[in-house]
Every structure is written in structure tokens, then in C-alpha cells.
Write the C-alpha cells for this entry.
Amino acid sequence: MTYVNRTAVVTGGASGIGREIASQLARRGAAVAVADINREGAQEVAAALARDGAKAQAIAVDVSRPEQAGAMIAQAADVFGAVDILVHSAGVGVERSLLDTTPEEWRRIVDIDLSGTFFCCQAAARHMVERAYGRIVTLASTAGVRGGTGRAAYGAAKGGVIALTKVMAVELAPHGITVNALAPGAIETELVARMHSAETRTVYRAGIPLDRYGTPEETAAAALFLASEEARYVTGHVLAVDGGFLAAGVMHRR
Ligand SMILES: NC(=O)c1ccc[n+]([C@@H]2O[C@H](COP(=O)([O-])OP(=O)(O)OC[C@H]3O[C@@H](n4cnc5c(N)ncnc54)[C@H](O)[C@@H]3O)[C@@H](O)[C@H]2O)c1
């Protein structure tokens, strides 16, 4: 798969899964806008990509602000001439029980994880419709598919991302735009380092048939497929990258 002559915006590109997606896209020839609320982090990633010979641009954005999401797409289109690919990886997590979740925490997670997805994808779609081409990849989560403790706000937001992804896939199909979601399980990133306690790690791992957490590299590979020209007949799909977590029920380890 090649991304030469393709231009991509990767939100959440300063860290974790987004950073790895930005880097794999750049290595395969795409021009990449690294967009993040962490301006310095985005600049560092963009500078590293540029040192390796890629066309890269850092963009500071708070994805929960619609006007900033619009400005991000406009800036990337201005710098690169167009935006072919949006990978929306910006997100935050919290591990908090239903009974302990405060209204502020609920709103923060829903604002960033769900509304942020809507604002960024809508802005990208408006641009892509004009060009009758686009690849949009959202970041859902296995928490948006299955229940689990400590995921009231996060799981609800990610479930919303899945529903939104399917609606976008249907509405944008006539415009040559595909929209798919990744549903990562437990992936070793800064987010998980913050969110998963030692106890969570033990309990989580017991439910993963492949018996380990995944890596940003493994997650990015799936994102690159969905963002590729070759995935042109795949839309409205939720691709789990989870070591078998969603497939599993009762498990004996032998
Ligand atoms: N790591 C996992 O196990 C896992 C599992 C399932 C889903 N996900 C999802 O994958 C995505 C990436 O997660 P990650 O593990 O790479 O996390 P991460 O914390 O390493 O990276 C997330 C990035 O998003 C940025 N960000 C946060 N709020 C923002 C905002 N309002 N505007 C713009 N940027 C913002 C952060 O600055 C950070 O650079 C998230 O949507 C997350 O929910 C991760």
C-alpha cells in the first residue's frame, strides 16, 4: 500500500496510536498534518517526520471546539492543497465507576471523545465531499462494544463513535468517502499507562486470548489499511485490534 500523493490529517498525532499512524503514513509517502492539543508534542513529531524526509505540518487543535476542528482542516488543505485522509485519534480516557462518575467527568469525556469525533469528521467530510474522495478512520474502542467496570463515560462515548461512524459511512458513500472505525483493545500507550491500574492490567489480560497488550505499531497497521486506496470497498466497518478480546468468553489457558 502506498500513500504517495496522499495528504492526511492525524488528530492526537503527538502521542500513542496517533503518533505511530502519522509516522507510518509519512514513511509510506503521505504528507501528514500532526494535529494535537499538545502543541509542542505535535511540533516535535512533525519535526521528526520532516527530518526523515516527509512533508509534515504541526497543527494545534482542541478537537472539542468545532471552530478549531474546522480551522484544522482548512489549514491542512491550505498547506497541502487537499485533505484525502482523516485519522481521528485524539481522545482521553478515565477509569471511573458509574456511581463515582461526576457530571464534569462525564461531560469532559463525551465532549472530547464523542463530540470531538463529530466536529473533526464533519469538517473533513465537508472538504472531502467537494473533491468526491476521502478516507475517514475514527478511533472507537472495545469499551464501545462490551460493558466493563469503570467505563460509564468512556464506553458510552466510544459506543457513540461507532454509531456515528456507521451513519457517516452511509451518508458519505455517494461522495466517494469511506468511513470506518478501529476498536482497539488494550494498547500500550501513554493513555493506558494513566488509565490502567496494576489490578486492571491483570484482570484485562486474563480476558485476552493472545495473552498480552497490543502495540501502537499493530494498531497503526490496521488504520493504514482502512485509510488506503485498496480498502475502497470497506465502509461502515468496526475493526477490532484487540488480541481476540471481543471474541472471547469463558477461557481455559492450556
Ligand atoms: N491505548 C488503548 O488501549 C486504546 C484502546 C481503545 C481506544 N483507544 C483510543 O485511541 C485513541 C488514541 O489513544 P492513545 O492510547 O494513543 O492515547 P494517548 O494519550 O497516547 O494519545 C492521545 C492524544 O490525544 C491528544 N488529545 C487529548 N485531548 C485532545 C483534544 N481535546 N484535542 C486534541 N488532541 C487531544 C493528547 O494530547 C494525546 O496526544 C483515543 O481515542 C483512545 O480512546 C486507545
User: Anything to note?
Assistant: The two ends are 38 Å apart (CA to CA).
